[in-house]
Amino acid sequence: MRMYDLIMKKRNGEALTEEEIIFMINSYTKGDIPDYQMSAMMMAIYFRGMNEDETLALTMAMAESGDTLDLSGIAGIKVDKHSTGGVGDKTSLALTPMVAACGAKVAKMSGRGLGHTGGTIDKLESFPGFSTEIELDAFEKNVNEIGISIMGQTKDLAPADKKLYALRDVTATVDQLSLIASSIMSKKLASGADAIVLDVKTGSGAFMKKLPDSVALAEEMVRIGNGAGRKTIAVISDMDQPLGYAVGNALEVQEAIATLRGEGPEDFTELCMTLGSYMLVAGQKAENELQARGMLQEVIDNGKALDKLAEFVQAQGGDPSYVYEPDKLELASIREEIPAPAGGYIQSIVCDEIGICSLILGGGRETKESEIDLSVGLLLHKKVGDKVEAGESLATVYANDADKCRQAKERFLSAYTIASEQREKEALIKKVIVPSSWNE
Ligand code: URA
């Protein structure tokens, strides 16, 4: 087989066979196919697309290009959750202990934040001592004993995706549906969970800004997951404004803890309830979503979800006292309000701009190597549809540098539109992609 012929075939709009895709991915991972040929192939795929069979074959080939986790040492159905990323998205911090407190087994691999979106690992590291750099043995033991563990992605997980993603990033071929879906799902499949609940974001703070694109991506990932024998469902949720009120690592941890105490923001709580109910059904801990919701509410009301977070933090080397005394989490020393320039109603918030404000303050990464400041961020006081008086605070900025604080405030103001008419709030859950096999 020759890569040249495969490029020509795709360039001419023909479908590649499974055998051809396996050859291409294996050879590229080994270094036998040069970047320039693979770049040409990515561009051909960008313009010609891939059908469902090709996308599944590509995903499987990338998932099998390195280590695949064998979680058979963990009893029961292992459930994973993945978000395509957004601003203020601290969902895993609250959701995973809620679900584990109801008896589900949560075995999750997470990443760090990059660009305007935050990552679960960074947020968890706000707990002094907490580490996700744990061995597989400890990961399995924690899931078996307390029902939850989160580890950083191992170096050899889906190495083909790592190489291809870096290539796509510099050849303008990231935003192609089959390539995104296969990239995300190859890592999920290699991580070994039996069931996967996907949270696909849509809106100005999301990777996919338009609802039809988010739906198409969600459908493709659900098809791949179920095609690979993993029970997979996708919830499409709003990211046209930040989730909850807190943006920034330690601030988000505090908001997640408030949520586990039943005192969280309405939108964030609702998202945790929705995703959690599908995780409990997929993990066969509840018969239906309604029953699952009741179970999730109970573990919030009786404090078991909060206790589960404390157990999880302790099991991974963190100080659990911070779970019960979240005010101990270090927050930046400069605190400044952002006054509304006019009165009226919040019409819109350019969501990724709020993520960029956090990035300016030092709370996010420009490059993979950047060090981040966990103590900085923004606490919003007004969201879309809220009434605001002129001069009233839209948000509090937490900064450690006066100049960065000034820059973030300026940028923040340009992201908010205030108008005299009140705009209706958007629905948080836009759509759920349920496979036909869901109730089997
Ligand atoms: N996230 C991924 O992991 N891969 C993509 O291609 C896009 C987003």
Please describe what this structure looks like.
By secondary structure, the chain is of the alpha/beta class. Helices cover about 45% and strands about 15% of the residues. It folds into 3 domains: about 5-50, Transferase, Pyrimidine Nucleoside Phosphorylase, Chain C (Transferase, Pyrimidine Nucleoside Phosphorylase, Chain A, domain 3), CATH 1.20.970.10; about 80-325 and about 430-435, Pyrimidine Nucleoside Phosphorylase, Chain A, domain 2; about 330-420, Aldehyde Oxidoreductase, domain 3 (Alpha-Beta Complex), CATH 3.90.1170.30. The longest helix is centred in the middle third of the chain and has 17 residues, at about 210-225. The strands form 3 sheets. Strands 3-2-1-4-5-13 form a 6-stranded mixed sheet, with helices on both faces. Strands 6-9-11-7 form a 4-stranded antiparallel sheet, sandwiched between helices. Strands 10-8-12 form a 3-stranded antiparallel sheet. Helix 5 (about 90-100) runs parallel beside helix 11 (about 250-260) and helix 5 packs across helix 14. The chain has 17 helices and 13 strands. Bound molecules: uracil. Uracil binds near residues 165, 179, 180, 183 and 207.
